[in-house]
Protein: tRNA-specific adenosine deaminase
Organism: Rhodanobacter panaciterrae
Amino acid sequence: MLPQQIHLTLPPWIGEVADESRLYLTDEDKVGLAIELSKHNVERSHGGPFGAAVFNAAGRLISVGVNRVVPQTCSVAHAEMMAYMTAQQRLAAFRLNEQGGHYILATSAQPCCQCFGATVWAGVDELLIGARAEDVEELTEFDEGPLPADWIGELQRRNIAVRRDILRDQACAVLASYGATGTPY
């Protein structure tokens, strides 16, 4: 019988790092959480060096994600994808902002081509980025895939504001640490 269900999980330590009771008011607060998630994911050997979080306009944490590709044997289990899927499930909306509201994705590193595509459709209004794609490729063995030459402009034309290089050095430190281990995920 063909599988009829998909089951993806986040690591059990997520609640220790992501604090639902606090407000994440600045871009640095938001990206800082994504970087902290990526760091714990590597330190605990639960996936690759990527973290992401979805927030509402007030800075309330809606969902988080970390890279779970290898542990979940699923190529779409990137941090951004996990954060989008859990936010969509929590809000019962396939486009987060479809019924109003303003949503922000903060990510430890620039979305790859897969996560860029999901960002177009996920219903976020802002994208906050730590490390750049070139940092990821230089410091690890990951291939971030092809993006449109003007990927920022493509998102802006869809009313998604992009800010990058937020805590870039901290994000790169996690990537460099991971890259030095030679770990395959």
